[in-house]
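Please decode residue identities from the backbone states below.
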């Protein structure tokens, strides 16, 4: 009787271990099946980052990121559900499962890689200093001790610190940073180079680039840790979009330049 009980106990433990392993496998596989079962994929972005993602005059969410997200969803066989949210809390929203990914011009950094996973890059850019047109400043280094505006939660705050900014003002999006620069509230703004060039060429702001990009950035889609199956599917889609010229075409559409290759 004792031996039988011992064997039975071992059998129950073995079944429990197998069930646990199986349960873990299901949870790992669930990220892509979750999207397929829902028939949609939700990608987050700020909605205030033209020409990448912004609301047009008809209050429609448009831009390079939006078109890329829509094409990714189409190739996954699901509908796109775009989500606009504050950039400062966008990673926490992802980690909490509020949306499936972040496709909103997020740069890959070592710090972010500690808490989220990234796809292969879908475009490349750099950190650019923008100043008021006609500024007496001759180089980014001359912003030491001055006021620099950046969007909250971006890597540009680190750039401002390295330049020795006297004060770093944080804003919701680059519509606000560039307005403040245009009105003279800040001495300079650090943003994505393409965003700065686009704003300058649009003629809406009396601004100019100051010097060359401070550094280059890989821009990719962020995913929650543990959602590797979904990440792998999106990587496969992005690879094809690079190869067949879709990303290049969308870049030309929105930026009049191809920023999808180094």
């Amino acid at each position: 009787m004792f031996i039988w009980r011992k064997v039975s106990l071992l059998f129950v433990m073995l079944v429990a271990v197998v069930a646990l392993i199986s349960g873990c496998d299901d949870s790992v596989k669930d990220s892509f099946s979750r999207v397929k079962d829902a028939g949609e994929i939700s990608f987050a972005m700020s909605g205030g980052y033209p020409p990448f993602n912004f609301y047009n005059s008809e209050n429609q969410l448009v831009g390079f990121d939006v078109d890329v997200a829509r094409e990714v969803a189409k190739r996954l066989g699901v509908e796109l559900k775009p989500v606009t949210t504050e950039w400062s809390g966008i990673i926490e929203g992802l980690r909490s499962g509020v949306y499936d990914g972040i496709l909103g011009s997020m740069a890959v950094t070592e710090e972010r890689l500690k808490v989220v996973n990234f796809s292969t890059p879908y475009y490349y850019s750099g950190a650019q200093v923008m100043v008021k047109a006609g500024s007496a400043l001759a180089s980014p280094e001359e912003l030491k001790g001055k006021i620099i505006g950046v969007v909250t939660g971006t890597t540009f705050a680190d750039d401002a610190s390295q330049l020795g900014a006297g004060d770093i003002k944080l804003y919701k999006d680059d519509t606000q940073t560039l307005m403040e620069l245009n009105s003279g509230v800040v001495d300079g703004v650090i943003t994505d180079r393409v965003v700065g060039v686009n704003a300058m060429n649009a003629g809406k702001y009396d601004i100019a680039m100051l010097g060359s990009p401070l550094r280059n950035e890989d821009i990719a889609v962020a995913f929650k840790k543990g959602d590797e199956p979904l990440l792998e599917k999106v990587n496969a889609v992005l690879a094809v979009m690079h190869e067949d010229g879709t990303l290049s075409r969308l870049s030309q559409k929105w930026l009049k330049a191809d920023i999808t290759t180094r």
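Observation: The chain has two domains: 32-123+218-255, 125-217.
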